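TA notes. Do not distribute before section.
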Amino acid sequence: MSSLQEPTKQHEIDNEDLVIDERIYSLYDQYCHGFISRRDFLKRAGAITVAGVSGLTMAQALFPRYAEAQTISFTDERMKGNYVTYPSPGGNSGEMRGYLAVPQTDGPHPAVLVIHENRGLNPYIEDVARRLAVEGFLALAPDALYPVGGYPGNDDDGRALQKSLDRAKIMIDMLNGANFLNAHEASTGKLGAVGFCFGGGVVNFLATKMGDKIQAGVPFYGSAPPAEQVADIQSPLMIQAAEKDDRINAQWPDFEAALKANDVSYVRNLYPGTGHGFHNNSTKRYNEEAANLAWDRTLGFFRENLV
């Protein structure tokens, strides 16, 4: 377990003093993962009142504010972002689209695949790709929803669309994205991957499938791969975990045992006081101190293994 250190200052999206009850966070986690509907989330939250504050007010504060959360403008002169399409044989439609962020410094550049949560390529994930680009990494953020029209502009519809797709084929689409990025003319051929929630599980999946074609993986609160597949991991992992994330943390003992049994290089950082999604600065789940520290560590890990 790692303790928090002084992080680099990062964008703060909300200066309100609203304190959100843990029960609301728990309901939001169920809603985010599709276990309950938006309507049920708001209804159940509305039945809670804490110190005169309605749970409905707390619940509404958790919905994302993407415009306020942007840290790197899409017109930032340190990088160039554009959408690209590429073949994806065996995937959900045979073609994929992603957001490619290219540093404006002389290339080639080490490459990082950025994998979204369970709702498609939303503005937060595009911003993460830009954050990597201004640090000198070629970043590609695929959109799993491209075969059904792409991220629809809101997370509720995005979540429903992603759930409608063949999950195994989504994984193939992500693997094809990694291969496309690795072979890109602006890439050095050194490849890393970072993902959040669903995307964290994809990072672990890619590590089991790509062997030495991937050199570093950073899953943020992602599901563990099957224990029998851990033996195929050749890349080092930096596992970013939230303290208050029972569903993911319950998988850790078996995952850790498999990593040790197969001599996989890994470090796990557990961030005190945080919940699932703490890096996402578009919602009140965001923990600025932990998010900044986790990001600094992520960048350092990529520089160590890709540069």
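Switch to the second chain here.
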Amino acid sequence: MLPPRFLRRLVLAPLVIVVTVFMVVTLPFWLVVAAAAALRLPPPQRRSARFVWFAAAWLTLESALLIACLWLWVAGGARRQERHYALIKWFLEKAFTTAVHIFQLRVDIDEPEPPDDGERPAGPAKPIIVLSRHAGPGDSFLLIHHLLDRYERRPRIVMKAALQYDPSLDVVINRLPNAFVPRKSGQTLVIEEIRGLAATMSGRDALVIFPEGGNFTPRRRQKAIDRLEEKGLLAEAERARGLTHLLPPRPNGAIAAIEACPSADVVFVAHTGLDDLVTLRDIWRYLPVRARITAKWWRVPAAAVPHGREERIQWLYDHWERIDEWITDQHLTRIS
């Protein structure tokens, strides 16, 4: 059970700063321990020192973000959204740069050029609804970073309530138009949160949704197919069987967002590169010395979005099949 907010502020936030100071002061010791441990591992797995460096950098950034949020609160700027979006942008830029240097991370994105009537500064901006694949660690961070950096958007997202155990997320995200939902809250509450966030979007806002509801695993894929069959959605179940890399999309959230903000363009996001890194054990065992993430975006103008519910479900599956085919092509390209 998640502790009350005041308790999280009094305990978890200061604890992060204390741990950061301890980590920075004792960093040479941990690097020596990591280097000694790496000698017992085969060369491809000698990455412990990199994780130590990244952990220290991440904690330092988290502490800096918490201190900045405290300063805003004391100075009376806790309700100023633009300052908090600037803080998030700064945090993600620094975290991304750190990952590039430590893990030699490379991100290649094939995306549509901003249209004249949408994203260019000279034209009126339009809200967007982002429907993204969910796979691997940090995909949401990279997506939010790109929205803030490339498109100068103000992201909105519905997240699991348990993420509030991270003090920096807890403080910053709760000061912005986002939503945390309990694990067993049910789909109705999630849909209502999505509808509320979408209905109040303006031209520079972007609502991010992961229609799969979680990372892909073969077990989750089969459970999703079984659930569709139990509901009598045989056509959707058959199409879901054709998806090799994705869980079938849950359409209610996407449809609720489109209904609440019909003027929004829809952006579909595919990405691959860290697909098999689901647990901390996977990250430790399989994260390559040089990590590469490849992504592709498709933008659908609001006028091209179907109107009927059934048409929108089929349209959503059409794009999910396109994403699945793109991921297959990327895997084949890397093998060749």
